[in-house]
Structure formats: structure tokens, C-alpha cells
Amino acid sequence: MSLHLFLAHQISKTLLHSHHRLTVPRLIIPPNTYLHTSPTTSSTLNCYGVDLLPPKLQSRLFKSVKQAQVPHYQAQVATSELKKFGLDSSGSSFPLPDITPHLPPILNSNVSDHFWQVASEQVQPYTDLLLDLLASDTPPTPTKWNLEPGWTRYNASDGTWASVPYPTEKCCVFDVEVCVTEDPRAVMAIAVTSEAWYSWLSPHLVHAESFPSTMSPSTMIPMGSDESPCLVIGHNVAYDRVRVGDEYRIDRSGTRYLDTMSMHIAVAGMTSSQRMMKLASKNMTKEELKHKPMWL
Fold it and tell me: Would you name the residues annotated as active-site residues?
């Protein structure tokens, strides 16, 4: 599998869980077809009594699949085995309406390839952003950090900095820090792009003020999200994402989040810290287990 296809597959699994849903063509079926007013009349039972899709729908969804003919004696052996476990091979066919004319064209030769191609096209802007970031060198780390509230951009060429409303590049690696005993909102954040480093400080941290009791996006981190594609990468990035003020706007957003922890778990299983916690859970008391993570 090529790197591009692997990343498209991994990102599609992660990004499609965003509450800002990707655009998917809607299947429009006339209201009267929701009722079984025009059920299929042909039998859809196989020789084992299993109800199958109607032939027209089956040929539409699985164009390249040919149904193998089961020898009669093999079918008899199989059905006799099913009867030993109380499974009746006579079955019953459930009538379905014919929705084949209302389906969109199936791309390539089967449903699996169809959704692979649709997902690849929808994540294409984000894979392009990611591959551009991977192809670039990391800017040098600033030798001195600005301690003013808000976002600061550090110019790699001359070492100067400037206040900005949010990172200007469309792909960044992002992390936040929280003073958990004071408030769940972030007190500082860091981001790096292909062009520059960024830091963000909460005005409540800089001015030694308590956070307001009312939660609002204005007291969180701005990322400048709009409808254009933007990719934010982080480890367990859901923790960082809930502290971004843009995520609480009603407006449609083109920003997607890529979780490197989820990608690691999909490829290599649990992380080392998760594995240690899993082993330690065997000796946890009932009280400790009440406070365990949901995944454990």
C-alpha cells in the first residue's frame, strides 16, 4: 500500500468522526417506497434458508461478484448439520422495496471500492496538507518566548516575533497545557507549521486573573477556522480540541483534527503508558476502578 493511500485510509477513519460532517451525496427515495408497496416478488433465500438481497440490488452493489453454484450433496450435508443445532433451513423471505433506481452510480466494481474512492476524494485536501508538512523541515525552535497574551508568531529567518490572531498556515502540530486545579480551559498552547513556531498564552495566566465562571469561546484558544481545509495534528488531540473556541461555533468549519495516538493504536496497539495501566488495573481496588479511564 502506498504512503498516500495509507494516510488517506487512516485520516478518513479519524476525520469522519468530526462533528463537522463531510459532504456525502444524499440518497433520495420517494416517500411511498418506504412502505412495502412494491416488494420484490422473486425469492431471495439461498439453499441454507438465509435471506439475501434482491437480485437486482445485489447485481448493482456487487457487479464483479459471481454467485457460486453449490453442489446438491454439499447443500444437503450443510442443512443436516444446521438441523442438529435447531436451525431450520427453510427460512423466511422478507419483502423489500426496489430501491435500485434511486441508488447513485457505484464507482469501480463494488461497494468497498466505491466508499474507498469517495473517502479518498473527500480527504484529499487534508492529505495534501499533511504530505506538504511531512516534506518540509521543522523550523528552528525559538531561543526566547514572548510572554504577551494571545498568539505569537516566531519568524525563523531573523528570530523576531509578531502578535497574530491565530496561526496563518493551514496545517500545524498543536498542543495545549492546562492548570487542572484552577480551570479546565487552557492557559498556554504551542503550534508548529512548515513555516514557523507559534505560542499562545491566556490573558488570565499573564495577568494572574481567575477564569470567568461562564464558559465561552472568547476565553478559549482561537484557531481561525473557516470553510477552507485546515488540519490540526495532535497526540490525543480530542483533549486539545475541546479547548479551541472555534469548535463551539455554529458556522460550518473546514478544520479537521488528526490524532496520532489513534493512528498509533490502529497500527501498534496500546501505547506504553496504556499498557502499563492495563496491567496495573488487575490489582486496582473497587474504589480505584470507579475512576479508571473509559477505555480500560
Answer: 175
